[in-house]
Amino acid sequence: MVHSKSLTLGDPDWIHHALVTLTLAIIGLFLVLPLATVLIEAFAKGWSAYASSLAHPDTLAAIKLTLLTALITVPLTTVFGISAAWAIARFDFRGKSLLITLIDLPFSVSPVIAGLIYVLIFGAQGWFGPWFSVHDIKIIFAVPGIILATLFVTFPFVARELIPLMQEIGHEEEEAALSLGASGWQTFFKITLPNVKWALLYGVLLCNARAMGEFGAVSVVSGHIRGLTNTLPLHIEVSYNEYDFVGSFASASLLAGLAVVTLVVKTFLEWKQKQDAKASLRVAG
């Protein structure tokens, strides 16, 4: 019988077991336990109360707005991410480092600050607020403001997944296709896109999860108008503050379910990407 040994030479077995136990304990305490608590509280008064909470008009409106926001922001972020990755990985130009820094900006700026910036720009007393008011266009405390705030916090995800991969792959295959008479679009769809498809799907997945779960920036620009500008995370906060614990945790269970699905799909995409890499190595060998 073969016994498992530590990958690090000289480490005794007790260190291996201690690290595994500590990891499982942290996962159980900070991941599994909170998810279990959400489900327990959501079904505390039975299935009928759970279903009734999800069927409430305010809950349905929050779900619809959340889906609408994701439906608009994810494609826009995807187009931006592909364009930015293509430009950075394939061309050298002045300001390239600045562009990379700007793409990373939402990772370092608090979402609340991002929301306040949009209020400063598009609010009633903001830079362009009076002009929008005259033309009866609502940005802040309306759906456009929510979409803008969500775009700000999500647009790095796709680009950040594609840039390092496209830089690693290089552009020899694309140059060969162009030299054989392929057009730019043919090269993109038949060479570039297949090479980055798993990273692209991974970035879109993370972008969608962030778009549907964003709270800070959306909270600032939404105005918390029931049935109109409350996304699902905001609806959860409102329900909890009003002591509607079943309704709050029922809505939270939807986001928890999204997190679990995201994790499963993420794991599958990573596995599939590794399988494709191994197949490519076998073909090359």
Q: Determine the number of helices (DSSP H or I, runs of at least 4 residues).
A: 13
Unreliable parts: 1-6
- What is the succession of H and E elements? HHHHHHHHHHHHH
What value does the average pLDDT take? 87
Describe this structure in words.
The structure is a single chain. With 285 residues, this protein is an all-alpha fold. Helices cover 79% and strands 0% of the residues. The protein has 13 helices and no strands. It has helices spanning 13-42, 47-54, 57-90, 96-108, 111-122, 129-134, 143-154, 156-169, 172-179, 184-213, 216-222, 232-241, 245-284. The longest helix is centred in the last third of the chain and has 40 residues, at 245-284. The radius of gyration is 23 Å and the shape is globular. It starts with 12 loop residues before the first helix and ends with a helix.
Topology overview:
Layout: H1 13-42, H2 47-54, H3 57-90, H4 96-108, H5 111-122, H6 129-134, H7 143-154, H8 156-169, H9 172-179, H10 184-213, H11 216-222, H12 232-241, H13 245-284
Helix pairs in contact: 1-13, 2-13, 3-7, 3-8, 3-10, 3-12, 5-7, 5-11, 7-10, 7-11, 8-10, 9-10, 10-13, 12-13
